[in-house]
Amino acid sequence: MRLSVIGTGYLGATHAAAMAELGHEVVGVDADPRKVEALSRGEVPFYEPGLAELIASHTASGRLTFSEDIGAVADCDVHFVCVGTPQASASPAADLSQVDAAVEALAKSMRPDTVVVGKSTVPVGTAQRLRAELREATAGQARLVWNPEFLREGFAVEDTLRPDRIVVGVDDDRDAEVVADIYRTQISQGTPFLVTDYATAELVKVAANSFLATKISFINAMSEICDATGADVTTLAHAIGLDERIGRRFLRAGIGFGGGCLPKDIRAFMARADEMGVGESLAFLREVDRLNLQQRDTAVRMAAELLDGSLTGARIAILGVAFKPDSDDVRDSPALSIAAALHLKGAEVVVHDPRAGANAQRAYPTLNYVDSADEALRDADLTMLLTEWQEYRDLDPTRTAEQVARPAVFDGRNVLDAESWRRAGWTYRGVGVR
Ligand code: UGA
Question: What's the pLDDT score for residue 270?
Fold first, then answer.
């Protein structure tokens, strides 16, 4: 099929490449000429393992093109809306301006009898509203489907090509067949294909992210209790996770969740529930958010404790500022917010990240960024591992002890082997671990 993908950020670029991989002809449309130029050359303006190769292979085959011109959608049968829905600047709600602009522009440029498929994460009720607008702009001909995306950064290609499930919200079952045709390969490989109404499809996405966020805040709450009682949260997570009803995944205690999705999605969900008069039903998400942010304060407090109460003038090596490993994304990154808080409290913060340094520097230019973990560690009074990149997990505690001024480490992701670090002379603190 001939497909257009509106918005070529994280979601759109991956989706466009994956659709070309499935055999479709795809044009990715973006208003930013630099993005379009880079992607057309097969370059990806952010770090995502495997994506540049996939894009390059399909720009070379001619199945994937990029354009600044929305007119490029004119000969496409289906249009995917993949633009961002960030948190609004003055409220916890989602900013839908990019989605609204994309649908409005599409309505003017597409063949009126084609199908628009929304993939962006939107508040429940949005699809119903957009459908009415789209129908009005196309004399009742255009159709709308809502098909939320569940990809994770760092695994975006894999998650898009081999998703756990495909969910489509429709107001006419025939539209589901059009989408089923696009995903034919995945459906034939056994991917569950669920057809539902708009509201359920929109809610599946935010409910999934809310559940994941809740799991993380739950285990972080347990980590506080473990700290207070001398228990060990990693063993606790392992033991409760062996119960299949609970499961071990997303029970890694640490400095909490960040990124461009979980934090803003739970806030937008609460804001929407408030608007609908059912805010009380999501009151627990306020606690989830609060517990998550509290982990950052706990990390700062632990840093001060490890430095005998005084942050002022202490040299702190920050290992990792991306919101998670295998990503250069620092949006709402707990690691970066902890680094910035320590700097504001008078510490000399030296930051290293294998990929996210440049993005972090743009967000917080006042921190000291260096090009290697060795440079960050040199003469450090405290070492803080805040993003669990493999290169930090592989650090040799004996060699590292020789580089720093004082062998004290805060393991914000509970990934170091406490025993071997202590044997090498380190004072080790994790989050809720012994
Ligand atoms: C998340 C969801 O996992 C995806 O399913 C969803 O499609 C995506 O948001 C989205 O809405 O687009 P992502 O933001 O890429 O994906 O990252 P996650 O792997 O979910 O990690 C989120 C944060 O939670 C990271 O900061 C990570 O360090 C933290 N985390 C994760 C923990 O602190 N503990 C855990 O056990 C797991």
Answer: 98
